[in-house]
Design brief:
alpha+beta, 17 strands, single chain, 4 domains, DNA_pol_palm_dom_sf, about 400 residues, DNA-directed DNA polymerase, DNA/RNA_pol_sf
Length: about 400
């Protein structure tokens, strides 16, 4: 088949699998996709890529001494591996595939449908009967961890040994030696590459889960928000794999629906949100995968970075700061605003316990909790609004 025939079969749904290809957003569509570039890719971002405003901050604080690998939204990608449902969405929305490198076809079958239903039903039972909440929480953990394990990068796993001076030279001279870290005066931690690596995980499972997650987030923004809400009435503030925080100009999403799209919205609403016509439907759909549920609402959000935000103006404020204990005294609204307004950073301490030589010991770790540096998009001179990277 020619490349065009392959793309036609993907658009029609006749081909299901993965495609390695080069893909781009045409120049005429870049303004349309500027707020949320549709192509997700891991790439090294350097100080020359992040725009003048953030580059000046990075140079002043020596915050980006070398390029950093990160996940971004982009207008183009080379040799990117895409699941055909996501690629089909790209093609339907005007993106152009310039070259297909290879394709692998799979048989389409919902082999984990029963597993997904068991997890959802267990959580519904937990909502109805508090005595089953432990089972519901356990099934939630099983459901969330099942696919994540399949994409474990076993090539990065190491053998770690703790040794003293009498054995250190032997390990350093081992052909599989990687790194040495002194712990105390005569005790060292040695990292060794594994002699044998078994690549035995079904990575296609986790890959497709994350591809479908990307697809769903794109559908919500471009096939729901852009369709039913005027761009002047909402703005995305922060997004993760399966969640989006957005500011709207009304008290609820219903208030900002385009008047001429109200009837269409009512007909399609159940495809995006849990039904609210009866309590039974509301409770059932609350645990249905793929529907968007209200996680939090309030007056505002200070979003500094991925997984680093402070939501305020509600009975219970919501705080996220990856790698820092959420109960840290440094994670306050004032500190988040201070970082945003002063282009500064805030340090915090992580405290915990670890087992060392059969003894439980406490540790204190100093780290940067809140940082002004943001490299996933170019930050404009106002220090708040952003635009896409040119990579």
């Amino acid at each position: 088949m020619t490349e065009q025939e392959i793309l036609n079969h993907i658009k029609s749904g006749d081909i299901f699998g993965v495609v390695e290809c080069d893909i781009t957003v045409p120049d005429t569509l870049k303004p349309h996709f500027a707020e949320m570039p549709p192509i997700f890719k891991n790439i090294e971002v350097g100080i020359e890529d992040i725009g003048d405003h953030m580059a000046q901050h990075a140079k002043r604080c020596d915050a980006l001494p070398r390029p950093r690998r990160t996940l971004i939204g982009s207008m183009c990608a080379t040799k990117v591996l895409l699941a055909t449902p996501l690629l089909r969405w790209y093609l339907e929305h005007g993106l152009v595939v310039t070259k297909i490198h290879q394709i692998a076809q799979f048989l389409r079958k919902a082999v984990f449908e029963q597993f997904g239903e068991e997890v959802s039903n267990a959580r519904r039972e937990g909502d109805k009967d508090p005595s089953k909440s432990i089972i519901a929480d356990t099934m939630k953990l099983i459901g969330n961890s099942a696919y994540g394990k399949t994409v474990t990068n076993k090539e990065r796993q190491l053998n770690v040994q703790v040794c003293t001076d009498d054995k250190i030279f032997e390990l350093v001279n081992d052909p599989f030696f990687k790194n040495l870290t002194p712990l105390v005066s005569d005790i060292y931690e040695v990292d060794l590459h594994k002699r044998v690596i078994e690549l035995d995980l079904p990575i296609q499972i986790g890959f497709f889960v994350y591809q479908y997650a990307k697809l769903r987030m794109l559908e919500f923004y471009y096939d729901f928000m852009i369709k039913f809400v005027h761009p002047e009435d909402f703005e995305y503030c922060e997004m993760d794999t399966d969640s989006a925080y957005l500011a709207i100009s009304g008290d609820s999403l219903d208030d900002v629906i385009k008047p001429d799209m109200r009837n269409a919205f009512e007909l399609e609403k159940h495809l995006w949100f849990p039904r609210t016509d009866t309590d039974e439907h509301k409770q059932h759909d609350k645990r249905t995968p793929g529907l968007f549920k209200l996680e939090w609402e309030g007056d505002g959000i200070v979003a500094l970075n991925s997984k680093c935000y402070y939501c305020f103006g509600s009975e219970k404020e919501k705080v996220s700061c990856k790698g820092v204990n959420s109960r840290s005294k440094h994670l306050t609204k004032e500190n988040y605003l201070k970082v945003l307004r002063n282009c500064s950073s805030v340090q915090a301490q992580n405290m915990g316990f670890r087992l060392w030589e059969n003894q439980m010991q406490t540790y204190i770790q100093e780290k940067t909790a809140l940082s002004y540096l943001y490299i996933k998009r170019k930050v404009n001179e106002d220090g708040v609004s952003t635009r896409p990277l040119d990579v």
